[in-house]
Each structure stands twice: as C-alpha cells, then as structure tokens.
Amino acid sequence: MKLFSYAHVNYCCRHLLLARENKCDDKLLAEEDIQDDCVKEELPEKEEENVNENICNNENKEITEDESPQDNNTVTNPISKDNKLSPFILKISEEHLKLYPQNLTIKNLYYFIMAPTLCYELDYPVIPKRRWSLILNHLIEFISLVYVMIALHKYSNPILAKMEKQNQFLTLIQLCIPTAVIYLIGFYIYFHAYLNLLGEIMKFSDREFYGPVWNSDSILDYWRNWNKRFTQWCKRHLYIPLIKLGWTKFWAQEVVFVLSDLFHAYAYYFAFKKILFGGMLAQPLFGRLLERIIGRGRCGNFLFWFYIIFTHAGASIFLYEHLNNKLS
C-alpha cells in the first residue's frame, strides 16, 4: 500500500509538470505566430496606434477586474478531461510540486516506509526536536501492556481447556470480558503506544492514527474511525478517483468497504478459513441493514459494544475448536 501511494503521487507530479510544460510551449508558439502576423501587416498611423493602445489597456483592466481570483497554493489538473488518466491525477500544492523530482532519493523513500503513515507526501509536517520524556512514556506503556496481554491470555487458556466438559454458551460468557479487554489493549498498544513512539522518534508530527471508536454508533462508523491511516489511503487512492470516474457516492463507498474487508479478512482466512472470511465480507451489508432497523445514537452504540464483546469471544472459541480438530 505504501509503495502504491509512493508511485501514484510521483506519477501525478510527473504528469502535472509535463502537462504544464506542454501548455507553456503551446502559448509560446501562439505568441510567435501572432508576432509574425503583426510584422507582415502595415503599421497604422501614430494617432490610431495610441488610441488602440488606450482601448487595449482599458479592456485589459476590465478583464483583470472581472476575473475571479485563483488559488495559487493548489495546482489544478491541466490534463484534458477527455484523457482517461485525468480522474487519477491528484491535486498537489504548488509548494510541494516544486520539490519534485528532488524528492526521488533513497533517503526519502525509506523515511516514508518507516513513517507511521500510508499516504505519501512530498513534504511531511515535523516537530523541531524529539521529546525524550514522551518516548520513554510510550515505551513503558508498550512493554507493560504487552505483559498484561500475556497474563490475560494465560487466564483465558484454562477456560478454553474446560470447554469440552461444559456448555459452550457458559464458556462464551466467561470469555467475553477477557477477550474484549485483550482486543482493546492490543488496539491501544499498536495505534497509540507504538505509532506515537515511532512518530516521536522520527519527528513525525501528524498523530491522528485513530478516531473516537468508543463513541461509534454503528459498525460502519467503527470501521471508518478505528484506523485513520487506512481510511485516508482508501479515500485518496480509491474513493476520490471513483467519484471522478462518475460513480455514485453509495457505490464508491461500497467498493471501498469491500476492498477494506478483503485486506483485513485475508489475515483471518488462514486461521478461521471460510466462515469468518465470509462474515468479514458481509459486514458492509450487515452494518447498513442494522442502521436501517435500529438507527444510530445510544442503541447503535450499545449494539457496537455488544458486537465487540461477543464476537471476539466467539471467534476465540471457534479458533480453539478449529485448532483442536486439526491437531487431533
């Protein structure tokens, strides 16, 4: 995903510069043709020439006054709309475009690969110096919470071992809280402790790694906020090009959700095979159906937490049964 973003942005910079050069060349050729035509014509008298100059100056003033001001910070797409590549050309600011092609270095590429972001930029916001107190704080959080997760896993293993002797529903109830806490701790370790630690070491100032997932009032809202970096990547490289191609917002969102589920369900497929893989792909349809029936607000937030608590416990039981049957 990072390499795709890197190639896409540099591809857009290259085409914007080439299109601008071609446009400037066309203007120069047109001006030369006009000058040649003027030389061939006979010069008018001085009085008529002065009158014409005054008229031209007045017309130019009126034109400049009527023209709407343009934003100098953003480079518009100079490629014609008939070009098939036009929907895939991103808007790039004038300041960033000046950095191309000097940004094509090994150092710049490896900084982007290590940086806590998925969207490539020609110039990243950085902090002036590293704050070692924050680095130590996030490092302590990371190490201590990893040990807490290990302890919770050891607490869950005896419950799973007794699953064959007792009812599965009772096992599900006993596993709800520890598995939900393990999931939330894992979320905090990666998206808060680790990514902030990495961002502080690399002086990366953009720290919006996740949104307020705890306030999500639907499953779809949760998927939008739980990984902001992935959401930004999908919006920039998938959603906006599809909208420019003429797709409706509904179908563009559905394509983004399906592709997002494919990325995440690919990892689940090896552990849970076809059942959870199909469940992940059905989440966009299931989420929209629940929004129509229950709606948003407190009921939606209650349903979201019910989903977080019980689905992870059920997934743990299913994984245990799958591994037990595979080994036996």
From TrEMBL:
InterPro entries given in the database record: MBOAT_fam, Oat_ACAT_DAG_ARE
Lipid bilayer topology: Multi-pass membrane protein
Pfam hit, one: MBOAT
Main location: endoplasmic reticulum
Active site location: 264
Record-listed E.C. numbers: 2.3.1.20
Region (Disordered): 45-79
GO annotations of cellular component type: endoplasmic reticulum membrane
Pathway(s) per entry: Lipid metabolism
Subcellular location: Endoplasmic reticulum membrane
Example of a GO MF term: diacylglycerol O-acyltransferase activity
Segments of skewed composition (Polar residues): 70-79
Keywords assigned by UniProt, alphabetized: Acyltransferase, Endoplasmic reticulum, Membrane, Transferase, Transmembrane, Transmembrane helix
Top-level taxon: Eukaryota
GO biological process: triglyceride biosynthetic process
Positions of transmembrane segments: 134-152, 172-195, 302-320
Family: Belongs to the membrane-bound acyltransferase family. Sterol o-acyltransferase subfamily.
Protein name per Swiss-Prot or TrEMBL: diacylglycerol O-acyltransferase
Protein species of origin: Meloidogyne enterolobii
